[in-house]
Amino acid sequence: MASSFSAPPRVVDECRGVLRVLSDGAIVRSQNTSFPIPVVDDGSVEWKDVLFSPAPHALHLRLYRPRRSQAPGEGRLPVFFYFHGGGFCIGSRTWPNCQNYCLRLASDLRALVVAPDYRLAPEHRLPAAIHDAVASLEWLRSQAATDPWLAESADLARVFISGDSSGGNIAHHLALRFGSPAGRAALAPLRLRGFVLLMPFFGGTQPTRSEAECPDDAFLNRELNDRYWRLSIPSGATLDHPLVNPFGPESPDLEAAEVDPMLVVVGGRDLLRDRAAEYAARLRGWGKPVELAEFEGQQHGFFTIDPWSEPSGQLMGTIKRFMGDNGAGWS
């Protein structure tokens, strides 16, 4: 006699132990982080969480600022957005790797750091994350006079946008959206001064050399890279979709686009290295204000894995120099 019980659902997709997709379509997220490391907080930077996108999404961001006692008479601070990575599928402002990196950003850059969450795939496929990033900028514009930290500390004429991996992809799309005169006017009185794309998460149907040669034991290997895309791109789309491939057949004409200054950061051992390097080279070849900084021997996300390493310190210096060259106003 056949059993009346069906087999339990099995795991069909898994991302770093914190996201599981089951065969019955259910999605299971762990409350744990894939980076179980301590937060190193010496008290020199203060932080708080703020709701920026109310129900039904209920998204928060985390604000960081150096304590005033550390630099008396400092005045208002540049605003530095940081969008976390995670292949659009995992990650949070609350994860300790993100917290540690943002603490160092606020301290080293002497900036008010804004670290927003965004909706994650596969529950919320692209372009949901892009929409949420736009909402976080609109929150800054609308709350600048009412949130006490913003009213006291934020210089809205010195706003920089950064993100790593999927966050770098988000930064690219924000640069396109707000680079034109109409885009700039939509954010007034905010003034975007520059964009920092840290190992941006781009893709395409034709593999690059760094993708094809990426070892299986890399922090971001090809199997995990492809899994992130499979779970996050719009249903029925390919890796040449405009949200994935900046140079896809249906992507915006970047040669004609207006963009603010960009710093593109790549790691010599990163699977995504070649796509980001080509992105910077092509934009620069079209006369865009784009520079490339390559960190030889570094893997994907080295600066959040260990924000206090020597290469991470060099990156902080590179970002600070870029900000100073583009209106941050440091002496």
From TrEMBL:
Location of the Alpha/beta hydrolase fold-3 domain: 81-303
Gene3D superfamilies according to UniProt: alpha/beta hydrolase (3.40.50.1820)
InterPro entries hit by this protein: AB_hydrolase_3, AB_hydrolase_fold, Carboxylest/Gibb_receptor, Lipase_GDXG_put_SER_AS
Active site, renumbered: S165
A Pfam family the protein falls into: Abhydrolase_3
Any one Gene Ontology molecular-function term assigned to this protein's record: hydrolase activity
Superkingdom classification of source: Eukaryota
Protein name: Alpha/beta hydrolase fold-3 domain-containing protein
Lineage: Eukaryota, Viridiplantae, Streptophyta, Embryophyta, Tracheophyta
